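Troubleshooting entry. Yesterday's outputs looked truncated, so today I'm pasting the complete records for two proteins to confirm everything comes through intact. If either block looks cut off, that's the bug. Protein one:
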Amino acid sequence: MNVKRPPALKKDDGIGIVAPARKISFDEIGKAITIFEDHGYRVVYDDELFASDNQYAGDDNLRARYFQKLLDDNNVKAVFAARGGYGSMRIVDKLDFSRFRKNPKWIVGYSDITVFHNHINRNYGVQTLHATMPVNFAGNTKEALEWMFDVLEGGTPEYLINAHPLNKSGKAGGILTGGNLSVLYSLCGSHSFPETDGKILFLEDLDEYLYHIDRMMMALKRAGALDNLAGMIVGGMTKMNDNEIPFGKTAEEIIREAVEEYNYPVCFGFPAGHIFDNRPLIMGAETEMEVGEKAKVGFVE
């Protein structure tokens, strides 16, 4: 399936903000709204964005209805998830992507938004953007935000990454897939889980126990999801936890061990994930990577 890139944004286009998972307040995204407007965009949201149902931004039906409204609004050219948390899996099957498929728009976010990246890329053949979210804008680096807007406006980034001691050298090309490891693991066996053969798999995670990282990597390996990759990119493995008796490996070492037997290149230390310098990745895009003394990662237009 050819994966179609959504149209580039133009000044005065509408950018919708949705909360498909954890609840959000205006104070948490006010800075982001200003940044969007300073870039010449109209920000589209209403009071339902700030709904509350325990941890969620409203119940499942409300969150799905609100997301659907933005998907179907022809005046909205990109939809940003305000934040992650947990909840996207609960609503993804309530959404109708038929109009979106005919008139695609950028869906932007990371973490729990991994659900939508993989579901949309696999089932509807539309690229999505793994990038920072409004709740993070105030703390993001200048580069993370500039590169994000550059991609939305038609740019195609190329990254040069410093050497990492765990890297596996080589060249590869393939469609980029993946996202947050914990969320990806939760999609196993569903029609939202990516077909990984010949793909470049991106992984990142936050606040997981190290033995959980090992368990998830073993699950992907036993499912055959790691066997025939073209390559792998590993982003931030942030704020990992350990038990009283140490696991004995870092998250990066656990991942390296899981893919040791394979011949494809692996790039560690990519600046994406739960970090301030969260650079954008075009999920579903044809991607080229070369890992040597440094690593290069770029997208084919």
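Protein two, checking that the full record survives here as well:
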Amino acid sequence: MSEPEKDTGPGGVLRGLSTLASMGITMVASTFIGLIIGIYLDKYFSTKPWLTIIFLVFGIAAGFKNIHTQTKKYVS
């Protein structure tokens, strides 16, 4: 497996910032998707608030897993 190139110029800084922004968006999106699925299933099955809590936790866990996977690419 090849390592990503380490660039210390302005392009490297912008690439790093875009990677961090991508991680933040990934975390928020996965949490929000889990929340929406949980709310919908709670309305469908009348199990308020249990499925919302469960799917919110699943969304947060998925966000952290994605961040972990992305950071493994850049940490040597």
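Both blocks look complete. Sanity check on protein two: The CA atoms of residues 45 and 51 lie 9 Å apart.
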